[in-house]
Amino acid sequence: MSIEIIIPIICAAVAAAITLLAAWRWQGDRYLCDTCRFNDPESCLKVERPQAIICKAYRSVDEQH
Ligand code: SF4
Q: Taking Cα atoms as reference points, which of 26, 54, 58, 56 lies closest to residue 39?
């Protein structure tokens, strides 16, 4: 088997392993919106809501200000 075949197979195996690890560590609370004080249709009009992963407007429900 040539190196041109082995390397993509190794890369695919590593990617699959990383995906399985991420799925195994899933805690069911990965979206920022789940813990954001603006997570309601009146306070947030972003299309990413309620599944934002990155958001500059994020404010924790626990923040005082
Ligand atoms: S401000 Fe960002 S994190 Fe908060 S609810 Fe809206 S989209 Fe989600």
A: 58
pTM: predicted TM-score of the whole model, two decimal places: 0.59
Cα separation, 3 vs 26, in Å, equals: 35
Closest atom of ligand 1 to 40 CA is 5
User: Residue 9 and residue 18: Cα distance in Å, rounded?
Assistant: 14
pLDDT tens readout for residues 20-34: 876 676 666 689 999
Backbone angles phi, psi at 60, to 5 degrees: -65, 145
The verdict on the CB of residue 31 being under 6 Å from ligand 1 is no
> What are the structure tokens assigned to 31, written together?
């979206």
Among 1-10, 14-23, 26-35, 38-47, the range with the most confident prediction by mean pLDDT is 38-47
